[in-house]
Design goal:
Elements (H helix, E strand, L loop, with lengths): L1 H24 L3 E3 L2 H4 L27 E4 L8 E4 L7 E7 L2 E4 L1 H4 L7 E8 L8 E7 L8 E5 L5 E3 L1 H4 L7 E7 L8 E6 L9 H9 L8 E6 L2 E4 L12 E7 L8 E6 L6 E5 L5 E3 L1 H4 L3 E2 L5 E4 L8 E4 L7 H6 L6 H9 L5 E2 L3 E9 L3 E6 L1 H4 L7 E7 L8 E6 L8 H8 L8 H6 L6 E2 L1 E5 L5 E3 L9 E2 L1 E7 L8 E6 L5 E5 L4 E8 L11 E6 L2 E6 L3 E2 L3 E2 L4 E6 L6 E5 L5 E5 L6 E5 L19 E4 L31 E4 L8 E4 L8 E5 L5 E4 L12 E7 L8 E6 L14 E5 L5 E3 L10 E8 L8 E8 L11 E5 L8 E3 L12 E8 L8 E9 L2 E6 L2 E4 L11 E2 L2 E5 L8 E5 L15 E6 L8 E8 L2 E4 L3 H7 L2 H5 L3 H5 L3 H5 L1 H5 ...
Parallel strand pairs: 18-21, 33-41
Antiparallel strand pairs: 1-32, 2-3, 3-4, 4-5, 6-7, 7-8, 8-9, 10-11, 11-12, 12-13, 14-15, 15-16, 16-17, 19-20, 20-22, 22-23, 24-25, 25-27, 26-29, 27-28, 30-31, 31-32, 33-38, 34-35, 34-39, 36-37, 39-40, 42-74, 43-44, 44-45, 45-46, 47-48, 48-49, 49-50, 51-52, 52-53, 53-54, 55-56, 56-57, 56-59, ...
Length: 1092
Amino acid sequence: MKKFSLHLFLIFFIVLISSCSKGVNKKKFSLLSSNNSGINFNNTLIENDTLNYFTYPYIYMGGGVSTGDINNDDLVDIYFTGNMVENKLYLNKGNMEFEDISNFSGIEGDNRWYTGSTMIDINNDGLLDIYCSVGGKFSPKNNELYINNGDKTFTESAKEYGIDDIGNSVQATFFDYDKDGDLDLYVANYPPTPFDAPNAYYYYKMQNVKDEESDNLYRNDNGVFTKVTDEAGLRSYGLTLSATIGDINNDSYPDIFVSNDFSSPDYMYINNQDGTFSDIIKESTSQTSFYGMGADIADFNNDFNLDYIQVDMDARDNRRSKANMASMNVDLFWSTVNYGFHYQYMHNTLQLNRGVFNGNKPFFSNVSRLSGISSTDWSWGPLFADFDNDGWKDIFISNGTRREINHRDYFNELKLRPMAKDSLLYYSQNIPSEPISNFIFQNNKDLSFSDVTEKWGLDYKNFSNGTAYADLDNDGDLEIIVNNIDQEAQIFENNSSHNYIKIKLKGSELNPFGIGARVFVKSNDLNQMQEMTLSRGFQSSVSPEFHFGLSNNTSIDLISIEWPNGNYYELINPGINQMITLDIKDSYSNKKTNIKEEDNLIFVSEKIVEHKHIENDYNDYDKEVLLPHQNSKLGPGIATGDINGDGLDDIVIGGAKDQPTSFYFQLKNGKFRNKSYGFSKEDSAYEDMDIILFDADNDGDNDCYIVSGGNEFDIDSPYLIDRLYINDGKGNLFKSANSIPDNSTSGMRVSANDFDKDGDLDLFVGGRVVPGNYPLPAESKLLINESDSKQVKFINADNSIFPFSDIGLVSSSVWTDYNNDSWDDLIVVGEWMPIKFYKNIEGTFIEDKSFIDSDSTNGWWYDVVSEDFDNDGDMDLVVGNLGNNYKYQASSDETFDIYYNDFDENESGDIVLSYYNDGDKYPLRGRQCSSDQIPAIKMKFQDYDAFSIATLEDVYTEPALENSLHYYVKTFSSVYLENTGDKFIMKNLPKYSQLSAINKILSKDLDNDGYKDIIISGNMYNSEVETPRNDASVGLLMNYTKEKGFTAIPSKESGLFVKGDVKDMEFIKIGDIDYIVSAKNDDYLEFTRINK
């Protein structure tokens, strides 16, 4: 008896230990064995003499996967397409076991090259049918439709339905575009095109589109489909890899996003509600991916607006990036722009929907760099879904190319030898091949994501293409299904444990699965929205059911649905952890909405003065090959104030080289008149950087000081000397020839203050750049006002007063008494600089590093403003930086650096930028760009493979780097510096403020709570083409409260919408109404009314 009890105890103990061990070690996802699941589909490619990379370059695009319950047993089944193998349908038997019914069901297909697949109930019988896209080199290319017979068999019927499209199809998606109740069809086609086709080819093709080349729209006419591509305005030429549906402007009509490969531009088709569509991609986005692959549309930040992700082929790994991936060709990039396509960059784009502005057009900001998902190598299928059930959508991305067709060394070698036709297979099979892991990113709930691929158990190296998700075991979490090339398909079982709700729809007779419906779920502080669309990612589709994670919430407050016909329904306090069905028969027509309408916006855009800054044509890179951005495009500055003494605010806006400074005088009716001066034409030779209206001579009127700058002049050019224009009191300005020193410096900003308390205003002028010699520090000057009744006179402060000249690449400054000693101090910020504090000791200055760790503030700072934001009696600061949404990233441990030296000893300075990748420091630029500056690099590193693993010291040598001018950045975040009396505490501003460079900051108490709020604007369009431009800002209001500090108010709530390359911004009163006027590089002035 004791032995038996001991035996039971040992068994119990072993089981307990095993269970605990399993619980500890089990990751979020587990790869199912094909022996257990029964799924052994393998999309095997067998290359031969007639079918290989060199005879059909699209051979490695892979197959798709679709999920759906084809026999209505409440278990989701899986369908895979094969390129050179039979398609497979697996019936879900429960317990993650599947039965291959492909042969019996009749869906295996023939010898066609199958690509994408979509499950849809096309004949409205409540059974999911399967639509297959067909491409490939050989005929037949007609797409196929398998009608579900209800007995697990299918009948091919595409021709009978009129949708056997003959284009080189990749994917199809069903939606009710005309809102007549039934489902229509959009087919995405990829016409085979030479990889080296120039933009002239694409442009010609876009003007002369053949029927078989265009994507197509098929209208459902009582069960038979009619091609209406032309009538709908959708005839197009594009190398389409994805077409995704979503109501992106919240007007209840479905819109289309089309992701196109190579230079062919993407399309964003807004539904005009009359059976036609309009492409608004250039109006609604600032940039797109270059090699646009798969895409998905969903609300990833829970603001009830649909966002979208588009993937590309930018490698995260330094070695793969420099050995395999094509660099951005400068000529190709600008050719793409100049042909009218778009600003297209080789990286993933995560387009954040900022709201609907300018009528019915939404606007999107690419936040992929801030989010951390910009670079995932050769990517195909992105999917938004809540994989950890925390109520926030995560991102899965499938990756891999069967052969490295961008391997530079291999193809450079092939260029040197002729390839006979009978050797093409040999050369194709010898293209280097390297499997890579897919990626999964966890949503951090603040616009950013964390790479949890390894942590969640998905770090398997594959050649993956189509992918889908589904709750295969009905346990309330989403599995991931992946179609691979030359490897078994993968099923990753999800082991999540949070609460959830699943929702099926019982729609109308003609749309039984409720395609196009929106469901909203409110649970405590979680507010989510999803829209029913099935084709997602790349060549794949998901099951027609909603899945909402609830985190640890134990109740649901409200589920509401907006049906495609406009009807509405609410379900209050349903139970959790179950599947529920919403039936359209329960809905009612008096539609409600749970989206808060903002009727009283703080800001409203208005057209007041039509004035355009016109940037002159100058290429900085001719002289400075590896310059990170153009320094010739940093203007214009703007100033507002009363010039002619009539009590009304006037405007002065700077001109680029060869454009006169413009003066606009306000009239009593609120309009403005432009006035020219005698100096206008002659002084248009200058580049105006900043403007200040101030009383230089203490005669009671505003004089005008203009900072001259730019990068297109010689170092000692007279056109770099600033200008002072004296006011006669009536608005007549006269250039004062000898009032200011002849400082020949390319400047940026000027600020005025009576620092010596002698009763007049002195000036600090920040030097921005030494033309042609970036990043040498430019001279900055403190100008002391020594004017008297006889003359206006400013002189340079000598070293006894201000012993600081080569401060750095200054961008802005502010005067403020930060130490409360009653003397205004000077704070200066700039590129590659710490925030510098110059303490005023009764009219003389010393650099003060006692208030903050100076080294920790090294950044690319562009503006600074000082206010007592927390009302505690001392002056705080807000400082605008580059932001966290740029290619360049930095931290205290892994800095972003620049070295300047004559590395090749040719009597010319060379720029070297470096970054960290996986703990090692590398040159930022690749072998080709680096050798354009220093040709010897090509000799030192004979091929791209060798350069791809070379560290910074390997390329440039440690001694040369140590003897260089060296700057580094530890933070690119814009910050709030809270003054505690004896030190500043640096706090990052909210994530929304980090979307782009902040070039200008204004402060004003807009909500009348006694605390100053801030308004920011910016962007930086002048980056070199391998660095996607900083263009995600549309302006931002941040309210300050004592409890929370600064809180970002999204544009859709505040109304602030100032996109473009904003360089300066000022308050102005027009009549009795307050406005903001914004100046943009090479763009029009913009006016924003402030509502009280």
